[in-house]
Amino acid sequence: MIAIDPGAQGAIIFDTRDGIEVVRMPMTTRGKKRVLDEDDMIEIVMAARCEGNLICALEDVGVHMAGNNAQSSATFAYTCGMTYGILRACGVGVKLVPPKTWQSWLGIKPGGPKDVRKRAIKAEVQRRFPDVKVINDTADALGIYAYAKGVW
Fold this sequence. Notes:
single chain; alpha/beta
C-alpha cells in the first residue's frame, strides 16, 4: 500500500518488509517556484513498487485551495497531475480519497479551524503509529495510509 498527500508539505507512506517508509514529497526549486522533483518521485514510487506495493491511496484534494493565487494553484495542480501520472506509468493503481472520507474514518470532524483539525489528525496518527515520529508534513499521509489499510 502506498498513501500520498500530494501537497508541497505532504508525504508518501508505503509498506516495506520491515514496516512502513515515510518520505516527504520530493520538491525542488525551478526559478522562483517549488515544484515536484519528478526524477526523485519516480525513484520513490519504483522503490515502493519493488516492495510489492501495487495500489496507491492518493488524496483527492482538487487543484485550487481557497486563499491561493493562480500561480500557487497551477503549481499544486501540476504536482497532483504529475504524481498521478508517475504512479500510473510505474504500474501502480490509484484510488482517489477525499479528505473528508479519511478524516471521518479516523474520527476527525472535517471542517472547523484548520489548526485544530491538523492537531487532532497529528495526535490520532501518532496514537496509531507510536513508533513513527509524526510531524505536520507527514500526518495527513499517515492518516490516508491508516484509512486505506483499514478499509481496503
